[in-house]
User: Fold this.
Amino acid sequence: MCLALPARIVELLDGDQCRVELGGVRKEISLALIDGAAVGDYVIVHVGYALTKLDPEEAAQTLALFAEAGLDPATAFAQDDTATPQ
Amino acid sequence: MKYVDEFRDQALAAGLARAIAHEAGTGRDYAFMEFCGGHTHTLSRYGIADLLPPTLRMIHGPGCPVCVLPIGRVDMAIRLALSRPEVILCTYGDCLRVPASDGLSLLKAKALGADVRMVYSAADALALAQREPGREVVFFAIGFETTTPPTALVLRQAAQQGLANFSVICNHVLTPAAIAAILEPPGGNAPQAVHIDGFIGPAHVSTIIGSRPYEAFAATHGKPVVIAGFEPLDVMQAILMLLRQVNTGRAEVENEFTRAVTRDGNLKAQALVAEVFEPRASFEWRGLGTLPDSALRIRPAFAAWDAETKFGLDYTPVPDNKACECGAILRGVKAPIDCKLFGTVCTPETPMGSCMVSSEGACAAHYNYGRFRDVPVQVTDTAASRNQETA
Assistant:
């Protein structure tokens, strides 16, 4: 029910609407629930509405954490406190 | 697809599985609840259960709006759609097959002549009302905090446009109340409560409400909460973070889904919801009983667009099918395979209980992706040679 997917804004339209693209599919959705979205931003889309903008830097950091956790556990745990995102 | 594929990477998953096994190797057992049906679906679909050590148990929570919707609310919509030919009843696809009283569902009511339509978005229902001024368009709205802001938006638009032929049956429910109810069942029937060491917190609900609402819960109950995205690596990382909290004696709110969730959430959406909705004194949840302050209703200022007021709809509670274990499964007390109906008379094609209806329901997820895990695997020579032929 809470299914939502990150999609890229490709065109801003009138009336708080925009066109997004996800995996080659384009769809018109509403930006009425968020502020300051621009072409090129990724937004999380749920039932035709963008819920929030996606933060690319945070995404990169989370991916780095996954990689770090999979290293030799003994060394990964030495960095426990700094590795936990807040 | 960017921000999707990289969060499903197999090599990273293997690394996370090793880290989880290492962190869980303390000799004790762990039980975590994933509150959201989205996480339940991810755990089943990607086979994460097979990557977890046997001492770590994931308990499926009640965070599936279709699953917790009581029969009486669906009955209300069916009665309205069957009794008033001018009504077009619109709802999300998940709701159409929920079993209701008298062997009916909204889909079966449609077969009996009711005008029931599936919509992708609340905006589609509003647009239908604009196109069909001679009909009464009623949107049967369900969902947690994720799905509530779009409903609030269309209600405000209907009010602004003076659109008299549009109204909403509001079934929107609140996550924090339900999480608390898992640990403190209403009526004080504590023996029904299941032991849980920590919670995976909602992904998209939290994009709206933020991580702050869980802080009081974690502090009061002494249970860690890790908010996680719905991709498989997100869920595995959250399990690792929960293990680390438990092993170091912490009970904090941590946020794995920082790419989309902040502490404060979406303030614009929160303000909109507060403008249109107010708390209901109590609401019945399937499996959890009647919970105080656990749902929303439409504010009196928008009463003209509240279908319950407009059509004088009354709610009549209806008990579940006696053999159906959805209630105990939603509380985490039982697993799908503990139900006699599971996989026999109750399947995704012919659901008897709500947990089999939505793909996020614990029963549907286990049926679609996990039911053969319960069957001992026997490899025979015949099967081996057939595999060689096809290889």
